[in-house]
Each structure stands twice: as C-alpha cells, then as structure tokens.
Amino acid sequence: QKTDFGIIGLAVMGRSLALNMADHGFKVGGYNRSRMVTEDLVKEHPHENFIPFYELEELVRSQERPRKFLIMVKAGKPVDLVIDQLVPLLDEGDMILDGGNSFFEDTIRREKSLKEKGINYFGTGVSGGEKGARFGPSIMPGGDMEAYGHVAPVLEAIAAKAQGEPCCAYMGPDGAGHYVKMVHNGIEYADMQLIAEAYLLLKYVGGCSNREMADIFDEWNRMELKSYLIGITAGIFREKDDLSDQELLDMILDSAGQKGTGRWTSLESLKQGVNVSMITAACNARIMSNRVDPRKAAQSLFVSPEKKQPADKKAFGEQVRNGLYTAKIIAYAQGFELLAHASGEYGWNLDYGRIAAIFRAGCIIQADFLDDITHAFEKNPGLTNLMLDPFFLEKINAGQESLRHILAMAIINGIPVPAMSQAAAYLDASRGMPVGANLIQAQRDCFGAHTYERIDREGNFHHEWRLTDA
Ligand code: NDP
Question: Where, if anywhere, are coiled coils annotated (predicted)?
Fold first, then answer.
C-alpha cells in the first residue's frame, strides 16, 4: 500500500499524531520497534488511512520520493538508533522529522550530519501532550527552509488552529524548533509555579477553601489571565477523590517531578548569560518539593512566623490576581529574552511575534495573553524585552504594588513564593535600582586585583586597598 507519511514510534504521542494525520486525509504508515504496540493500535483504533508496518524497509518502500518520516521515540540515544536504521534505506532529498523532546544541540549535530548525506532533517517541537497530538498540537519545526515546503501541508493541517490560523510555523534552521520548544517548556514551568504560589497565598494567607478558589479561578479565567492552565486549575479545585470522601487536591502529595526541559532552559540561560530566574526558581521549587521526609522532619525544628491575615479577603484575592498577572508578564519577558539572545548566537532569525502566535492554541501555555505578546513584537520587532512594550509597561506599573504586597504577606506568613519573589527582584534590577555591584567590584579588586570601573571616567582602575581597622 502507498502512504504519504511514515511515523516511527507509536507510543502515546506517535499514535495520536498518526491518527490526527489520518483524520486529515493523509495515508499514514506506522512502525514501532515492538510489534505489539502497532498491533494494539490497529485493534483499538482502526482507521482507513492508517496502515501498519512491521518492517522498516516496507514502510520506506510504501512512499514516493521525497519520503517523509516523523520519528516519535524516547529522546536521546533511541533517536540516533532509529536514524541509523532508517538512513541506509533512504535517498537524497528524503526528509526526517524528529517530533520528540530532543535536546537542541543533538538536533544541530544530527541535522548537520544528515545534510552531508542529502537528507533533510527537521527538529520539530510538538506541544500539547496526548490530547494536543490527537486533535491539534502546537508545532515548532526547524530545518532547511526550502525543504519545509514539502512537510508544511501535513504539519499545518494537523496543528491546532487559533482564529483560523494553524499553530505551526517554520522556526529557523537546524536546532531552532527544538530550542523554541525547550523555552516553551521552561515558560510552562514558571507559569505553573506562579499559579501554585497564587494557590498557596489564597489558601494559607487568604484562608480560601478549594470551593472558593475554584470560583476565583473561574472568574480569573474570564479576565486577562484567561488561559488553559487557569481553566484546568479551577476544575482541579472542584475535583472529588474517588478513593476517599475528600477533595482530590488535598489528597495529592506535595511533591512534583520534572523530566528535564525546564532544567535545560535554565542551564542554557546561564550559558547565554540571560536571566531566566523565574524558570530556574520553578525548577528549584520542584527540587525542594521532592524533599518530602526532610521537610516533614524539620517542621518541629523551626519556629513558625506569627500569622497575619489580610483585613479584606476579597481585596486580597484581587491583589493576588494582579500580582500573578504582573509576575506572568515578567516570566514571559525572561523567556523571550532568552529566545532573542539564542537567535543571535545561533543565527536563527527567530520571529518572536509568530512564536507567540503559534502558542495561542494546542499547547499547555495557550492563553489570550499571547495575542498581546504578538502585537508587541509586530509593533516593534526590535523589542529587546517585553516589559518595555508600552502595553506591558502600563500593566506592570499598575500591578507592581499588588505583587509587592502579596510578596510581603507571603514572607510575613512564611509561605515560599520563589517565582513571584524572582519576578520582583528582576523588575527592580531592570528598572535601574542599585544592585550592589559597586561593592562587588570593590571586593574583586581588593582580593584579586580584578580592577574596577568608575562612574566619572572611562577605563579600568586598580586601587591599592589599605583596609585600615577602625
Ligand atoms: P516515550 O517517550 O515513552 O517513548 C516510547 C517510544 O519510544 C516507544 O515507541 C518505544 O518503542 C520507542 N523507543 C524507545 N527506545 C527505542 C529504541 N532504542 N529504538 C526504537 N524505538 C525506541 O513516548 P511518548 O509518546 O510519550 O513521547 C515520544 C516523544 O515525544 C518523547 O521525546 C517525548 O519527550 C516527546 N513528547 C511527549 C509528550 C507527552 O505528553 N508524552 C509531549 C510532547 C513531547 P517500544 O514500544 O519498542 O519500546
């Protein structure tokens, strides 16, 4: 049987994308290393446009040139192993897309080595989890711009649609697509952490019940914070437990895992010399959350601060909403600044407005707010930091007092809010407040003769420090 597209790896993501393509009228050939997975898929979801293959050679033979394959296997070594099996069967001009969460440096390496063999390789970020993959993900392809034309019709057909536009766009050469996906995931970490901090504030400072928080989040979801994550959180507050008569959220362990894309973003930002402190704070918050036993054991060791409740619960809720929105702007400003820096460093020419536009549907961070980001970059493509866009500047100036107030309440009450704290620190360092680096320069010159710069004249100076006692 002839096929239009081959998918290698039919686990959760691969099978969902295969069925999505099949729904859109493409003849999809599917192959999985373990035969049983393919058999189960055909049994559970038979589809006239999905054709199972049990030999890679046969899948390759089923296509006209240029052939197109999507690899959807576990990131890392398995991707190289699949490429090694596939490439000897291919001809020049054939195309391989890697839709997994591959590290962008691996993608750069693979693209380069396959280009030498005449194969077009696309590192393709796919966001939206199983449901997104099945019914419309956000897709971030990176590779050769001309070759992209061969796969664009398929990718754009299966992508989510926002205001009728596909949430899929060519990102740039080699690792650009996987880089954007990595930063997307980093922003997702910060977004989720900020919402978790808003929950802690409402619950432990504002004294709100899950029921009340569900209503508050429903209300927020009709305003500027409207987003997929706020929407599902409202529903989570209402969820009943199947195993007890409690509300489910209260029965879930206060400890969250991480797979690594947030950490990659954080490590990469340090390499680039860009501050994404809120993403790093979100990674660290998960690390702290994993210390379940030590945290429990320490409860009796440390004195708890005296509780201070807000005078007006409703007004406090409004401050949390404003503070959360302000901090969210700052998190996105950090993420997009990292993209801008990487774009220059790797020569990708990323289009930030377009990137925000393809996040508007299909992915976890989808939100109305992304339209405002697109507008900001459309108005000023050279914008260096989102906080400086007039729309966001006004929002930050209006919301910063709420952010400071809820932070003060969190600290007084002993509630950890690391991402919101980093938002305020980043804002204050950005808005020209002293950051204490004059003293750091002095210390460095004093102990290591590293020299220092002055405010009244150019050049590097060294001072013979006398360090006299009182
Ligand atoms: P997994 O990451 O769980 O990977 C399982 C698949 O990889 C199976 O098809 C498995 O084959 C195959 N595989 C593993 N090792 C090899 C190997 N050495 N050779 C050939 N095939 C191998 O699957 P998911 O569907 O969850 O994810 C696929 C990719 O998409 C990953 O990179 C993931 O990070 C990314 N992703 C996942 C999302 C999600 O929500 N799950 C969301 C967005 C991206 P076998 O059946 O034979 O073991």
Answer: none
Cross-strand partners of 95: 68, 120
What residue owns the CA closest to ligand 1's atom 17?
Answer: 78
Closest residue by Cα to residue 418 from 106, 250, 145, 193: 193
| Ligand 1 atom, smallest distance to 102 CA | 32
Contact 194, 365 (CB under 8 A): no
Strand partners, 138: 127
Identify each DSSP E strand in 57-196 by its residue range.
Answer: 68-71, 95-98, 120-127, 138-142, 161-162, 165-166
Q: Cβ–Cβ contacts within 10 Å for residue 275, how many?
A: 18
32 is in an annotated binding site: yes
| Integer Cα distance of 227 and 422 in angstroms | 22
Residue closest via CA to ligand 1's atom 40 equals: 129
pLDDT value for 142: 98
Distance 156 CA to ligand 1 centre (A): 22
Q: Which amino acid is at 201?
A: L
- Exposure pattern of 363-380 as b/e (b: 16+ CB <10 Å)? bbbbbebbebbbebbeee
Considering only the top CATH level, what class is 181-430? Answer: mainly alpha
Q: Which atom of ligand 1 is nearest to the CA of 130?
A: 40
pLDDT digits (tens, 9 = 90+) for 14-26: 999 999 999 999 9
In CATH, which of 3.40.50.2300, 3.30.457.10, 3.40.50.740, 3.40.50.720 is domain 5-174? 3.40.50.720
Low-confidence ranges of the chain (pLDDT < 70): none
List pocket residues of ligand 1, CB cut-off 6 Å. 9-14, 32-34, 37, 72-75, 78, 81-82, 100-101, 126, 129-130
Please report the pLDDT score of residue 305 as a whole number. 96
Element (H, E) at 7: strand 5-8
- Residue-wise DSSP of 244-309: SSSBHHHHS-S-----SHHHHHHHHHHHHT---HHHHHHHHHHHHHT-HHHHHHHTTTSPPPPP--
pLDDT at 94: 97
Q: How far is CA 406 from the centre of its chain?
A: 25
Q: Which of 7, 8, 13, 139 to mutate to test the pocket of ligand 1 (most atoms within 8 A of CB)?
A: 13
